Amino acid sequence: MRFPPEFLDELRNRLPLSEVVGRRVTWDRRKSQFGKGDYWACCPFHEEKTPSFHVDDRKGFYHCFGCGASGDHVRFLTDAEGLSFPEAVERLAEQAGVPMPTPDPAEARRQRERAGLGDVVAMAARFFKQSFVSDAGREARAYADKRGLDREMLATFEIGYAPNGRDALKRHLAAEGVDERLMVEAGLIIRPDDGRSSYDRFRNRLMIPIHDHRGRIVAFGGRALGADQEPKYLNSPETPLFYKSAVLFNAHRARSAAHQAGAAIVVEGYLDAIAVYKAGIQHVVASLGTAFTEDQIRAMWRLAPEPVICFDGDKAGMAAARRAVDRILPLIESGKSFNFCFLPDGKDPDDLIAMAGREGFLSEVRAAKPLVEVVWEREMAGARFDTPERKAALEARLEGLVEAVKDTRVRRRYHFDIRSRLSELFRARDFRPGERRSFRGGARGGGEAPPAGMSLAGAGPTDTELAELERIVLGLCVAFPGFVDTHWERIDRVRFSFEPHERLKRHFLSRAIDDEAGPTEQTLRARLSPELAPLLADVCGESAEGAGRLAHRFPILGFEPPAAFVERCYLHFLDRLELKVLEADLDSDIAQADQELTTEGEARILALSRELARRRQAFLDEDRDLADLAKEIRGAHAAGDAERGPVMPAAGL
Hints:
It is a single chain. The chain is α+β, with helices and mostly antiparallel strands. The chain has 5 domains: 5-96, DNA Primase, Chain A; 105-242, DNA primase DNAg catalytic core, N-terminal domain, CATH 3.90.980; 246-378, Dna Topoisomerase Vi A Subunit, Chain: A, domain 2, CATH 3.40.1360.10; 383-430; 463-644, DNAb Helicase, Chain A, CATH 1.10.860. Helix content is 52%, strand content 8%. The strands form 4 sheets. Strands 12-11-13-14-15 form a 5-stranded mixed β-sheet, with helices on both faces. A 4-stranded antiparallel β-sheet has the order 1-2-3-4. It has a 4-stranded antiparallel β-sheet with strand order 5-8-9-10, sandwiched between helices. The longest helix is centred in the last third of the chain and has 38 residues, at 599-636.
């Protein structure tokens, strides 16, 4: 039901937030100021030793400065205890001593109707249980025994049997005074459109009740017992009680165990869930065999921040996982995702537990793959990327998937991860360290010297000059960390020719993305692997103050140029490195054409040549503009600085 805003406000006003939260945390007495309604504790949502979880009773709001969790009374109960919104409100009303609001007449009528249907479904569940222990249930008991369902599991999951007769349940309910209309509404019998008499939906099936989040039976799942009976698994249809897209089997039992374990396991079928539960792993739910919906995904996150979805290791399981990826990606957010477990040899959880026991199953769960890995493997399966067009198509598909992520910070992280993987994938063919690159079809002739002032920016740099240019770019990343934050996608696209340079660039990007407040020189230098430390020292000095090496490579910095000018130079250098990619593509195509020139290959060479010529001309125009600006900057600087030595224009500036 919907709750009036004034009712929710009354709950918050009557019940201090610290009283709600205090049931799950221990307040830090040194840091808290109880008299001011200011409370601090270690966060209940992530592991920490120093209290960073703050509750402000005056504002009725909590926030963790470690993991970012925040909210009010209701949000705390939904996140910390996995309650639904109505359940959280009812809990607060009970604690505050405030009566729940009376629903409007229409809502009250719907609740009475649902209650009536609930009674009918409960009566059906009792009938199925009685049938299970009767003579007619002999085959069902044999099947349950075969599946390892002992007396405890049969009682816990209230398992029953639907007799094989056409209308056994219908006749039983009619004898109890239940109107046929309610039987149809509850999804228990089917009324044909052609006027024939109605009949039981479930016949000759092992019956497993499906509960809502409060533990009330709302539907059934039936497993066929006949060898030729189809379908093998049959669920109740959607009814006023049962919204299949919002229900997880066993969620009401798993909730407490999941919060204690900080984890949840999702399997495909209810018998799998029962097998896992029987093995002592109670934080397990099942998706009822449907494709995941947004409601189910969010319901899983109420159990744990990163549930493990466990699929059978066959083609059907792989296909189900791939479908799930597309549903999940748009919804992931900071701290909330999924891991995927594919069981070996086509086994389902029941098979694996029978063969390898509880620990064997948990071992597979612990080896689950993160969502990004499943996305990558899905797109790599059967993909060909032996031509520029196929590589571009692969990049486009992956970028399209990443763009579906709504959470900005997570999308940025996925973009970085995918670009890193693509960089590694294409590196061997696209960039061979030490190979000399040159323009084809440009203005340079054999042995011609580069244009004046173009020792780094001109056509066909040597390996040494290219390495120096990449070092300048890396040095500017540290000296001007805002460039990394502003242009990270551009930097990410440029793949350096020298492996150590590429690794240092990746380190900078990773640190920049991790730093929510924006990167600084100190954060870019932090957590650097020991093997990259000498390179960083060569790029910009041993410490945050030691920028002498960068100034030596890029002398215009000694004339205190405006930051906007330095940024233009920085982007200009990136342009030069991107031109290298075009050169490599053209070189590759020309080499291939030397062996066999096709019409398609010739057209591509011409197109690349034109694009290269256009980009090169734009680069040279910008080069001249920057050289002119550099002269003005030097001229405006104090004349006494002339003894600093000659300054390279353009790329040397």
